[in-house]
Specification:
This protein has 21 helices and no strands. The radius of gyration is 21 Å and the shape is globular. It has one domain: MFS general substrate transporter like domains (Growth Hormone, Chain: A, Up-down Bundle). The protein has about 450 residues and is an all-alpha fold.
Length: about 450
């Protein structure tokens, strides 16, 4: 029985109800939002807290660069998380892997909240901090692919873009939650109190959020596509080896699609704009609490346009939605720093909100787009590893690169060209791939799924 007839199959082979599908959507939104709350709380704290409290030993000139290298470090371990999650997700199921990544991320984040600072234990403080950041990176590398497949593989054929937008909006929702909690905590504790104890509160809250996410995900059925594969004992023994042997070109091109979005997105999610606009020695010198609220507002815009893009991709196609998004994102990149550098809080808000329009349009279709690129038996490995490589090429060191460019040149002009170049790379990679909206996703259609979506190739 196929999972591609407009209704989703449960592991028992029965047609899932609309209520079951809503439960899956809700679980992927909430679970992904909680995971990315953890991830972005670290990035936000890098700009406001970790530079003075954990990386002071690097010296005033280099503390910011070293701290943002810590943000990028986690991306280097995302492929490890993606490899592990992809392997076991294709062999044991999407649901089990999602539970493990949720717990791993939550444990790392909570432990950060109790770490002693550099002043208390010296060099051991940043070492412990970076170790926990690595654990966050491994967990994040495994989370996205599982959440995406749970959503898209449960979806009716004509609503995969809309369903796939669910885990995507978990990312801006996580940013909104993180920025909101940090802004509220800072407003209550004050600047001194926030540096002394208040910064720990957002990290310690993670233990509560993880409990909520675990409870919600426990009630979600396994992906119907994987259930059908498992029922036939059709799991691939070495999914990653099959992926790299037969699908390497596709993986690299798909990674570049995400890299174009990720590099630009990490101007805020990686904490760079927060650091740049609040630096007391910089040109803007804005209040950190207000900047956090502006970032939270931009996250709302990002969420809305991500959802719109998922819906739109079901109407006009994934590829067309992407192309529109790249054009809008490019315009947002060229407007970003000219508006931010005016120092006007209104202009900063306009710049970040405009930027998120393009980010949403190039993020919303990604879940369905990626899912439709890979054969069912190695799909978890394909989407996870493409995503992880794209994160390294795009977002991993984007804040560090931006920080280094400004330190070297004293200007943001070259940062703009760097972000514009990454956007164009994303556009070109998109143009190299065919739109496969509504292709059957079940294991009965592996032969059709193995026909390459890359222009000029007959096999993946």
């Amino acid at each position: 029985m196929s999972a591609d007839n407009g209704s989703a199959l449960t592991p028992t082979g029965t047609i899932s109800s609309a209520a079951d599908r809503r439960r899956v959507v809700f679980a992927t939104v909430v679970g992904t939002a909680i995971e990315w709350y953890d991830f972005f709380t670290y990035a936000g704290a890098t700009a406001l807290v970790f530079v003075p409290l954990f990386f002071a030993g690097a010296g005033e000139q280099f503390a910011g660069v070293v701290a943002f290298l810590g943000v990028g470090l986690s991306f280097l371990f995302r492929p490890l998380g993606a490899f592990l999650a992809g392997h076991y997700g294709d062999k044991l199921g999407r649901r089990k892997v999602l539970m493990i990544t949720l717990i791993g991320m939550g444990a790392a984040t909570t432990l950060i909240g109790v770490l002693p600072t550099y002043a208390q234990i010296g060099i051991a403080a940043p070492i412990l901090l970076l170790t926990l950041r690595v654990l966050q990176g491994i967990s994040a590398g495994g989370e996205w692919g599982g959440a995406v497949l749970m959503a898209v593989e449960h979806a009716p054929k004509d609503k995969r873009g809309l369903f796939g937008a669910a885990p995507q909006i978990g990312v801006p929702l996580g940013l909104l939650l993180s920025s909101g909690v940090m802004a509220t905590t800072r407003a209550i504790a004050g600047e001194e109190g926030f540096l002394e104890w208040g910064w720990r509160v957002p990290f310690l809250l993670s233990v509560v959020l993880i409990g909520v996410g675990y409870w919600i995900r426990r009630g979600v059925e396994e992906s119907p596509v994987f259930a059908e594969i498992a029922e036939r004992a059709g799991q691939t023994r070495t999914p990653i080896m099959q992926l790299l042997k037969k699908h390497l070109v596709l993986v690299l091109i798909a990674a570049l699609v995400f890299a174009g979005n990720n590099a630009v997105g990490y101007m805020t999610t990686g904490g760079y704009i927060q650091r740049y606009t609040t630096d007391p020695t910089g040109t803007v010198k804005a209040d950190a609490t207000i900047i956090l609220w502006i970032v939270a507002a931009s996250a709302v815009s990002w969420l809305i346009f991500t959802w719109i893009a998922g819906w739109l991709s079901d109407k006009i196609g994934r590829r067309t939605t992407y192309i529109i998004g790249w054009i809008v994102q490019l315009a947002g990149v060229f407007a970003l720093f000219p508006l931010v550098n005016t120092g006007s809080l209104l202009n900063i808000a306009l710049a970040l909100i405009f930027l998120t329009v393009g980010l949403g349009l190039t993020y919303g279709p990604q879940a369905a787009f990626y899912t439709e690129l890979f054969p069912a038996s190695i799909r978890f490995s394909g989407v996870s590893i493409s995503y992880a490589i794209g994160a390294i090429l795009g977002g991993a060191f984007a804040p560090t690169i931006a920080e280094a460019i400004v330190k070297t040149t004293g200007s943001t002009e070259n940062v703009t060209w760097y972000l514009a170049g990454m956007t164009v790379i994303g556009l070109v990679a998109t143009l190299l791939l065919k739109d496969r909206a509504r292709i059957p996703l079940g294991p009965d259609h592996e032969e059709e799924q193995s026909v390459s979506p890359v222009y000029g190739l007959s096999k993946v």
